UniProtKB/TrEMBL annotation:
NCBIfam families: tRNA epoxyqueuosine(34) reductase QueG. This is tRNA epoxyqueuosine(34) reductase QueG. PANTHER family: EPOXYQUEUOSINE REDUCTASE. Pfam families: Fer4_16, QueG_DUF1730. GO terms for molecular function: epoxyqueuosine reductase activity. It is an enzyme of class 1 (oxidoreductase). Residues 153-185 form the 4Fe-4S ferredoxin-type domain. PROSITE patterns: 4FE4S_FER_1, 4FE4S_FER_2.
Length: 287
């Protein structure tokens, strides 16, 4: 796990970016992105009396990947749902801080509140926002979760790092649906992750045969990123996948039953799309 700290204050540079992204409808049907605009940009409006944002990264890069003749699941969803795993770790850290520093009040956030995770991680020096809009690091690439503790004490703040994407356009060139509309800007409404997880309606026929066999999420822009050559396998047992996630082939996925779905994904983030959603995605991928 990596840790960086920044001052809890208004994210001045992010405000026009977020406003433009929403105005251009790049959030698609993710209407929740329109809510709590002020809180997304100012943690002091989210957590009263907050002074510091502690950003944390937790690696999820797996030691093994799926059977190559399978429909694909994004690596972050292989094991136990990260929301539960990380929330517990953050509560432990907050308790540790209370014991060693004194009376601290704070709240833990894991991708479930109006917090701009990547912006805070970049501000605290944990990496830079890449052309695929993911947080990248020279040390371990980008396969990690981002979480925050927002606390009411002043701490020593870290400084941002420089951008190391250079002239590389690997992620832009590789995106199956051209969702990276320009460097550093992703149209969420064109992203395979959006279609296979967020979109509850029928998948648009215009994108048929463009999903590159992804049935839940997509890792293409991370898989091709040169910085991910430095990814190392995680050591968190809870992120280890159910054996069937790695072993099943396309035929077996096509024949997936609700019982098998519930067994394999009992504690997984894949539950978010529900059995019917995953079946819809698989049907869309059928030859």
């Amino acid at each position: 796990m990596s840790c960086g700290i920044s001052k809890a204050e208004f994210l001045e540079q992010e405000a026009p970016r977020l406003e433009g992204w929403l105005n251009n409808n790049m959030h698609g049907e993710m209407r929740y992105m329109e809510n709590h605009f002020d809180k997304r940009l100012d943690p002091t409006k989210l957590v009263e009396g907050s002074k510091s944002v502690i950003s944390l990264l937790l690696n999820y890069f797996p030691s093994e990947v799926q059977n190559p003749s399978s429909y694909k699941i994004s690596k972050y969803a292989y094991g136990t749902d990260y929301h539960f795993v990380i929330k517990d770790k953050l509560k432990e850290l907050l308790q540790f801080m209370k014991e060693h520093i004194g009376d601290i009040e704070g709240r833990a956030f894991v991708d479930s509140a109006p917090v701009l995770d990547k912006a805070w991680a970049a501000k605290s020096g944990l990496g830079w926002i890449g052309k695929n809009s993911n947080l990248l690091t020279k040390q371990v690439g980008s396969f990690y979760f981002i979480a925050e503790l927002i606390v009411d004490v002043d701490l020593e703040y870290d400084l941002p790092v420089t951008d190391h994407c250079g002239s590389c356009t690997a992620c832009i060139d590789a995106c199956p649906t051209q969702a990276i509309v320009e460097p550093y800007k992703v149209d969420g409404s064109k992203c395979i992750s959006y279609f296979t997880i967020e979109l509850k309606e029928e998948l648009p026929v215009s994108y048929k045969n463009q999903f590159d066999d992804w049935m839940f999420g997509c890792d293409v822009c991370q898989d091709v990123c040169p910085w991910n050559k430095f990814s190392k396998a995680h050591s968190e047992p809870l992120f280890s996948p159910h054996p069937q996630v790695l072993e099943m082939n396309k035929k077996e996925w096509k024949e997936l039953t609700k019982e098998t779905f519930n067994e394999i994904f009992k504690k997984s983030a894949v539950k978010r799309t529900k059995f019917e959603g995953l079946k819809r995605n698989i049907e869309f991928l059928k030859d």
